[in-house]
Amino acid sequence: MTSVLATYPTDAAQNCDARTLARLQRLGQRVRLNGLGHRKLSESDTRALTTALLRDIDETILPRHVRVTTNAGQRFALDIAGRRLLRLVVQGSGGSVGQPDDPIEAAKILAGELKRALLRATEVTLQSARMDSTQDRSDVGCSAAALAAAMGLDLEALAGESLSDKVTRALARHASATLVLDGHGHEAQALGDGGLTDRLRDVAEDHLPDIIQAMQQTLGRSQKSGCMSFGADGETGAHLLCAFCDRNRFLAYVDARRINALLPVIQDIFAQ
Amino acid sequence: MSVIDELDKLRATLPGCTLVAFGDLGARIVLCASASEKRPQEELDALCKAASLSLDGPASGQIAPALGGGKLAQVVAVGSGEIKVFLRSHLDDCDALFCTFTDQTDIREMVAAGRSTLHRISTLQ
Description:
heterodimer, A: about 270 residues, alpha+beta, 5-stranded antiparallel beta sheet, 12 strands, B: alpha+beta, Beta-Lactamase, about 40% helix, globular
């Protein structure tokens, strides 16, 4: 295994921003060189593996033909160029995915094919070869970002980030206001609308023990992490979201119009 | 369609849905339940107690007005391996639906389908 960090100048590594450093660490941890042209991507579950593969596509500019073998026994080939998946051919299927005119439809079809190809896989071996680069392929297939959106995946999510980081990022994106409390109940961070964070401080001061009791009764005392959203009405008003993980507690106001966007993210973070 | 038919239908519609129960928040009892496997009464009682505490507990009276409503109408709880949804009927404050499901089920679909089922059940009575 080759560590990218090991070959990266120490001073430069220390000076680069946290995001770049995390990306380098991720590459060092997750990508194993396995002979010339062969690489392995290994993750804890299929969803994480799919995200890793999409990141790989997103980082591929020059045209490549990539043969993929999964540890679940599937074999397929990907044509990639300009951060786009141009074509996916599953071995034995005898053909490739068609190209509808609508880019959203194209993303949905390719996403479905990729999902089936990666079924039950947690590791893939990638064998890359160069492809002819003279053709303009900007209208063929779809971008890695569009594929990720069609599959409900977040390419920006950093591998190795803590549960608290994930929750904070999700709430920063979807909540109107967020209050993060440390393990002692002290305020660690406040995000969003000032008036609403003041209200969250009042909720924390007056009602946190009652909310925790309701969460313990509902989720069980043995849970190390969990989340509950309380809504006055499903379609109007706001939702109060309470979560706990990594010794932190989170209180957030979420507009009713945003709750449907946040719930799948919360489900993804806490229900695993 | 009877209440149990409605509950069975809802559970069959959503993959990963393990339990759907209709109960009375005031009396804190489950009146009817549809489950993938038989559940002990204690488990149903605990679920009803949790729903009552979440929707009508000490904090709810203060939280609900701040959220723009008179009473809490919807609670979603997500923990490792299991998700619970508690819905209060808009027609009768005491009518509620309690659902448990695995992460195979889309919470949004569960809430929307559960809300429709609860409305039909409250209308039946």
